[in-house]
Every structure is written in structure tokens, then in C-alpha cells.
């Protein structure tokens, strides 16, 4: 039961974040897109928002495939990590993170999101059983 609740919370958080990418937090998310990325920041924000909504929905709608969804969600969290690093390195204020200390602390939460995705979907446990 705790894993199911955690999976639902993660799914709803992803959907909420995706909606925020597409609407009220769009500009703040654009500030996180690294300048070295050869894509339009608005496109990156919109695309990642759509992906977040899809991933959240997948966690809810396809429980039989939660192991795969867990790996994809974890990979997504790893893929967006450079944006968090960019925010810290370039001193970008967004989402209430107005100090380097706050931005640095945030970096340590990304691995926890990866672990949460792998744990609540049993992705890690399923992989270990196959080994």
C-alpha cells in the first residue's frame, strides 16, 4: 500500500509539473534550460511538460507496466538534471530559489526523485529479481 500511494503521489506530481510547464511556470522553467542546449528554450519547456504529463499518466493508467514506467521516469529525472545544475552554476533565480545555497540543496533532491521512481514502481526490485 505505501508503494501504491507513493506511485500515485509521484504520478500526480509529474502531471502537475507538466501542466505548470505548459502554463503558469513556463517562463521560470525556460530560465533553467542550459544555454549550450541547441534547442529553443520554450520548445524544451513545452516538450518536457508534455513528457511529464505522459509519464504521470502512464504511472496511473498502466500499472502492469509500472516497472518500465519507473525506469523511464528515473531516466527523465536524470535527463533534466543538467537544468538544475545550470540554475546553480549560472545563479539563476527561479521557483523561489534565490541563493546559491538553496540551489545547491535542490541538487541533492534529484537523486531522491530517481530513487523514489525506482522504489514505488518496483523497477529496481524487478531488475534485481532478473539478475
The tally of beta strands, per DSSP, is 0
What is the assembly state of the chains in this entry? Answer: single chain
Question: Termini, distance in Å?
Answer: 26 Å
* Low-pLDDT segments, ≥5 res: none
Shape: globular
Rg from C-alpha positions?
15 Å
**Run of helices and strands:** HHHHHHHH
Q: Helical region count?
A: 8
β-strand amount: under 5%
Integer average pLDDT:
95
Q: How does the helix and strand content classify structurally? A: mainly alpha
Helix content: over 70%
Let me know the largest β-sheet: none
Summarize the structure.
The protein is an all-alpha fold and 131 residues long. The chain is 75% helix and 0% strand.
Structural overview:
This protein has helices at 2-22, 26-30, 41-61, 66-79, 81-89, 100-107, 109-120, 123-130. It is mostly helical. The longest helix has 21 residues, at 2-22.
Which key terms come to mind for this protein?
mainly alpha; 8 helices
Please outline the helices and strands.
Blueprint: H1 2-22, H2 26-30, H3 41-61, H4 66-79, H5 81-89, H6 100-107, H7 109-120, H8 123-130
Amino acid at each position: 500500500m505505501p508503494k501504491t500511494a507513493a506511485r500515485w503521489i509521484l504520478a500526480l506530481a509529474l502531471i502537475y509539473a507538466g501542466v505548470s510547464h505548459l502554463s503558469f511556470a513556463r517562463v521560470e522553467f525556460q530560465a533553467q534550460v542550459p544555454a549550450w542546449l541547441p534547442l529553443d528554450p520554450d520548445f524544451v519547456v513545452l516538450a518536457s511538460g508534455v513528457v511529464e504529463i505522459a509519464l504521470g499518466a502512464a504511472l496511473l493508467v498502466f500499472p502492469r507496466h509500472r516497472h518500465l514506467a519507473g525506469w523511464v521516469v528515473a531516466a527523465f529525472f536524470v535527463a533534466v538534471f543538467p537544468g538544475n545544475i545550470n540554475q546553480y552554476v549560472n545563479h539563476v533565480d527561479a521557483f523561489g530559489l534565490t541563493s546559491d545555497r538553496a540551489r545547491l540543496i535542490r541538487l541533492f533532491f534529484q537523486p531522491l526523485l530517481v530513487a523514489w521512481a525506482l522504489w514505488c514502481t518496483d523497477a529496481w526490485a524487478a531488475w534485481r529479481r532478473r539478475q
